[in-house]
TrEMBL record:
Residues of the Putative carbohydrate metabolism domain: 318-534
Gene3D superfamilies xref list: BT2081, beta-jelly-roll domain (2.60.120.890)
Pfam families given in the database record: PCMD
Protein name in the entry: Putative carbohydrate metabolism domain-containing protein
Lineage: Bacteria, Pseudomonadati, Bacteroidota, Bacteroidia, Bacteroidales
Length: 537
């Protein structure tokens, strides 16, 4: 018997030795979610697809020793910046932190950002990220009889200044030459340099710190104006340009296919300096090619062109289109609010009407007649006592909904693809009856009565939110009342890739902790919305 048992044990050992460990490591991406540095002047731009972070600071910041004040990655990731650029690699935290006060007293988050910095996020795999800090230096340049704005080559430290043909290059009067920003100084002192018959060089310092050698070249030109950048919207364009010092520009514009020019009223032209201006051309048609030019003393300069943004139709903004399937209502032409063609708007109806949630009535339904402002409208009603989640806010949004009982907060995906013109306002009509808070929610924890919430968001191709506007209602409104939302753009260079519009009868009804709603909700709070409209400039 002993021999038999030993034989079985030996066989098991030999078989075990032949078994390879083929169980793969889990795939967990390393993602930077938040990143901030001292002296930051603009919102952080994070591109999760390219794994890049871009930050902007002003001219007073020292890039060589710049503190990271917030760095948040997903909880599974270990943070490993390039040791060569850290002031103290051993003292840089390898975990996420939301402020410096979260860190031990001996932590050191200073990094040399003079060049793009590599930061490795390590989970079961390695994910390299690149962090770039752009320093904006306001370089003020002005000489007598200057024409237009100077051309500044930041990379090669070269400045090209145009002056009128009558200006002698051997006697150029410099009114301002700040190549190192407002706290910089130049050697030699530019006030004593007048001969620009050949390029002059200036050493730039900030305090005693040497910033580099710049070359300044002054060139005569017969031109009296130059077209510059254009900020383009759907129905307006903000044009900029340069003119001969002391002159007054006249702006003309037309559709590219027209033969005659229209003159912009002088009140729309804003002189930024003696040689530069901005002007707003309004009343344009969307999706149209235009041309514009500058006249100085009746002489036209070169012609610039631009194409206005194209306005696209957002489905069912008037909420007249609905379809019912079983108990559930859908604000689309088909009974789907997820991925089917024709699905654009979504609600949480399928979640609350399911048997697992207690088989409640839908929380978002169409109404008409006296309950609508025009045609049909949407009625959103909040309820408490919902199985599993505790409460549900009446909701209607552009996006997708698919019930996730394991993680209810993940049921909602906000936003659908949108590449149309950027709206500047959103209007609509609403009425609202808020009810007392009764679900024991803790966020924000200060409400006694419910609030409704209507908002709009736009994202760029990298997934960065760059536009937002909202309306919050906290009092009872018994008849339809117009609301207007101003949309704030954080980045005027970004263009839309996705958009959402959200309406909810309980502002904090989407706040979850685990499977439970922890936002404050009042049972029976009811919001009616109708005739939404996006406005464009």
């Amino acid at each position: 018997m002993r021999i038999y048992i030993l034989g079985i044990g030996l066989l098991a050992f030999l078989l075990g030795a032949c078994i390879e460990n083929d169980i793969p490591y889990p795939y967990i991406p390393g993602e930077i979610q938040e990143f901030e540095i001292e002296g930051q002047t603009e919102d952080t731009k994070i591109d999760a697809t390219k794994r890049t972070v871009v930050l902007t600071v002003d001219e007073l910041v020292e890039l060589e020793e710049l503190k990271v004040t917030k760095l948040v990655a997903n909880s599974e990731a270990k943070i490993l910046p390039d040791e060569a650029v850290c002031a103290s690699a051993k003292q840089f935290p390898d975990f996420s932190f939301t402020s410096l006060s979260d860190l031990p007293s001996n932590a050191n988050t200073k990094i040399n950002f003079t060049n793009p910095v590599k930061i490795l996020l390590r989970t079961y795999q390695d994910y390299p990220w690149t962090v770039t800090v752009n320093q904006v230096i306001n370089r003020t340049i002005n000489v007598e009889n200057q024409v237009g704005q100077p051309v500044i080559d930041e990379l090669n430290h070269i400045v090209l200044i145009y002056v009128s043909a009558s200006q002698s290059l051997k006697d150029v009067k410099i009114n301002a030459l700040e190549l190192g920003g407002r706290n910089g100084r130049l050697v030699p002192d530019p006030s004593g340099v007048k001969d620009f018959s050949r390029p002059q060089q200036f050493a730039v310092y900030r305090g005693e710190k040497y910033l580099g050698l710049w070359t300044v070249d002054v060139v005569q030109t017969e031109t009296t104006s130059s077209v510059g950048e254009v900020e383009i919207w759907a129905k307006k364009a903000i044009v900029s340009g340069g003119v001969k010092a002391g002159s007054t520009p006249t702006i003309e514009y037309k559709k590219a296919l027209d033969s005659s020019w229209s003159q912009l009223d002088a009140s729309a032209v804003n002189m930024l300096s003696a040689t530069s201006f901005k002007a707003t051309i309004a009343g344009l048609e969307d999706g149209t090619v235009y041309q514009w030019r500058i006249l100085v003393d009746g002489v036209a300069g070169s012609v610039g062109s631009f194409t206005t943004e194209k306005i696209t139709v957002v489905p069912n903004l008037n909420f007249d289109t609905w379809i019912q399937s079983g108990k559930n209502w859908f604000a689309n032409s088909i009974a789907d609010d997820y991925e089917a063609a024709g699905a654009y708007w979504a609600t949480g109806n399928e979640g609350v009407t399911s048997s697992l949630a207690g088989g409640n009535d839908p929380i978002t339904v169409p109404v008409e007649g006296s309950d609508a402002y025009k045609g049909k409208a949407a009625r959103l009603r909040s309820i408490t006592g919902v199985t599993l989640v505790g409460a549900a806010a009446g909701n209607l949004f552009i996006g997708k909904y698919k019930t996730n009982m394991m993680k209810p907060s993940a049921s909602v995906t906000f936003g659908r693809p949108y590449t149309g013109a950027r709206p500047t306002k959103m209007t609509g009509y609403y009425k609202y009856k808020p009810e007392p808070i009764n679900n024991g929610g803790s966020i924000p924890g200060t409400l006694t009565k419910d609030q409704c919430h209507i908002y709009i968001k736009l994202w760029d191709t990298a997934g960065n939110e760059f536009a937002y506007g909202e309306f919050v209602g906290s009092v009872e409104v018994t008849s339809y009342t117009k609301f207007t939302i101003d949309i704030d753009y954080k980045n005027l260079n970004a263009r839309p890739a996705a958009m959402t519009i959200v309406a909810t009868s309980s502002r904090y009804g989407g706040e979850f902790e685990g499977a439970k709603v922890v936002g404050q909700v009042g049972h029976g709070s009811t919001l009616y919305v109708d005739e939404f409209e996006l406005l464009y400039e």
